[in-house]
Amino acid sequence: MDTFAEIIVSIRHNRLDRPFTYRVPSTMDVRVGSRVVVPFGPQRLEGFCIGLNTDSSLSETDGIKEIEEVLDEAPLLTEELVDLSAWGAARWLCNRVDFLQAMVPGGVRWTQRKWVEFTGEVEPESPSLCYLRDNGPVKMAAWLKSFPEMDRPGELRRLQQDGIIKLSRRETRGIGKKKILTAYLINEADQSKLGNKQALAVGILKKGPCALTELEKQGVSRATVRSLEKRGIIKTEETSLRRDPLAGEQFIPQQSLSATVAQGEALQQIGDALAGNKPRTVLLHGVTGSGKTEVYLQAIADTAAAGRGSIVLVPEIALTPQMIERFAARFGERVAVLHSKLSAGERYDEWCRIAAGEAWVAIGARSAIFAPFRNLGLIILDEEHESTYKQDEAPRYHARDIALWRAGNHDAAVVLGSATPALESSLQARLGNYRLCPLQERIANRPMPPVEIVDMRQELKDGHRSIFSRPLLAALEKVFAEEKQAILLLNRRGYATFVLCRECGHVMRCTGCNVALKFHMAEEMLRCHYCEHQEPYPLTCPKCSGRYIKHFGTGTQKVEEELRKHFPHVRVARLDADTTTRKGAHQKILNTFKNKEAHVLIGTQMVAKGLDFPDVTLVGVITADTAINLPDFRAGERTFQLLTQVAGRAGRGSAGGNVVVQTYTPEHYAILAAKTHDYEAFYAEESVARRELGYPPFTRMVRLLLSGEDEARVIDAASFMVSLFEGDADILGPSPCPIEKVRGQFRWQVVVRHCELEPLLAAVEDAAEKFRCSPPATAVRLSVDVDPQSL
Ligand code: ADP
Ligand code: ZN
């Protein structure tokens, strides 16, 4: 009986996001999760098998094409991951193929590229064609990049019709297993009957199997190997070679520490969840340095002892060698590492080791949530509140939700670890849906660093106008006198310019949405980018009538200049998007600081996370206001998280440390709560505000982003989008996005809210479908973001 496969082809197109049926040739081993190559119209495409059947009615039907090829020895995706792609596509309103592609480790994809060659008969004149004649077939994309004049509409078709060029498609297989030929000694030979080279080979192989490439290096040719093989003295076999991301690194094995009482309680809760008891999610709420990582390590060991695998997710930026080192020291070979800095080959091999059950634990950034364990026991999200767990391109999934889904499938436990849990998670714990495990003290009773809040309004009143307040200058002086180090944080995102009164600290906000109004330089207007509200730039402060009202924003470079004015001899390392564009720059800058070649590290958010420098006795926050006044409903939460995290960088060594936070809003609850390390106080205030204004986690939101080159069209499309919802739908916008123009594309957004997710998704899906089939959609791109991290 014929077998048929349901294939999703690798084309990102809404209309083609459905399975197509292909016949499976009887000699071919296609399984659910296999990647295949199929004919599709005139092309060949990569596809994913999501189902198999032997429907006899299909056998009669003509016109069903055959699968041409299976791409991997064993399916790269498990059946569970194939199911996940269906659930995820419905959950985040994206294409199923988006998920299937996102799951496959990077660099593995089978792709097709267009190539072009010169086939004309007369000498070409243009440089572009001369280049082709001289260089043979070349990749079309690269050629067009060098000769953009060829990219005119119709140009290529004309050249093709005139027989001057020929286009073709070439396939790239992507990465696979790395194969090597290894020789084994199978028959101890009488040395006297061997030639010199043969004897040399036998000598080497007596010590153990050896790769042919290695034998060649030692002077044994392939011909010698073949002659020995013919005589039955050795045999050769093809084996795969593992590309090990941790190769050559030494890890001193480390045993479990004996758990503290609080750690023991957390481990017991996790154990109970592991045993299949609900709730299966544990919120591990522990201050920085309270021993969360040790809890993870021991829970993973328990899970492995039960024969089950674990996944540990860390925010990309925290995936420092330090973290990997701790895992490798505990689990050695049983750790698989998955992150974007690995080569494609390493990633592929680590993936296969997980699928084959060779690894106990996979540690990686967001996409490691797809690690193909067949028997998963535990999923850990470290720093679970981090926004990097949400992918900001399709599929726009959140790793936390996928963790919960996979845990449901495997009866596995989920551990969400954080010093500042997301409001979403904290709410679930309060509702009794998660187990709450607090770790309230730092290990060894190390104190939390004291946090000093400096009121910058008072500084101004006292006639002190520097961006460094007097208390911060004094603290820096002390650091330099004691030959310690300081970290200065300047949280700044390019677009976030808000207007603030330097005398009273008043910030211009939208009364309806409670977000900071954004300053538009060109029109001298202030605009709320949630609703349509706008107002003119005020000449005086509406609250205190002060004249020092101005838009706000300072760069790290300016901070460095200012610092040098006060301390001319100080050595500074700067860590921000400008200084870290080159590969490896990030680590290099940190090493400079680590080796004490710099006294001060100035940086953006990047300096807040994961760094552990025992000589840092001071952390200074240049202005907390840039975080508070981000035009975003999560601004308060982000501020609290940032301040807590950056405070955790101070006083890690025996010398202790302190934190100085400069602000124009010292009374803001996020700042007060960070000062006293009081999460509960923060939660109480923040949740009241969110509930009142109808923001998550008390509502659900979907952001519909419309973009295109023609601004008028984009605006029209956005209004049209709004008209597709029922009259009583709760809609914010249309309004320009916080970043209004990216690479020539104008961007507008429409935000839809509802208290429940299901009806919201249904309404949005319906509207998006109608939108795509309508004239206003022409030349406008729609992208849908369910549960956006920011608006
Ligand atoms: P967190 O992940 O919460 O920041 P860590 O697990 O990194 O905390 O622990 C902080 C420090 O305390 C580390 O140096 C760790 O080795 C040490 N530590 C953790 N648990 C214990 C324990 N039970 N006994 C002794 N030292 C511990
Ligand atoms: Zn508003």
TrEMBL record:
One of its GO terms (biological process) is double-strand break repair. Pfam families: DEAD, Helicase_C, PriA_3primeBD, PriA_C, Zn_ribbon_PriA. The gene is priA. Zn(2+) 2 binds at C510, C513, C528, C531. Residues 536-706 form the Helicase C-terminal domain. It comes from the Bacteria. Its EC number is 5.6.2.4. This is Replication restart protein PriA. It catalyses: ATP + H2O = ADP + phosphate + H(+); Couples ATP hydrolysis with the unwinding of duplex DNA by translocating in the 3'-5' direction. It comes from Dethiobacter alkaliphilus AHT 1. Its cofactor is Zn(2+). Zn(2+) 1 binds at C501, C504, C541, C544.
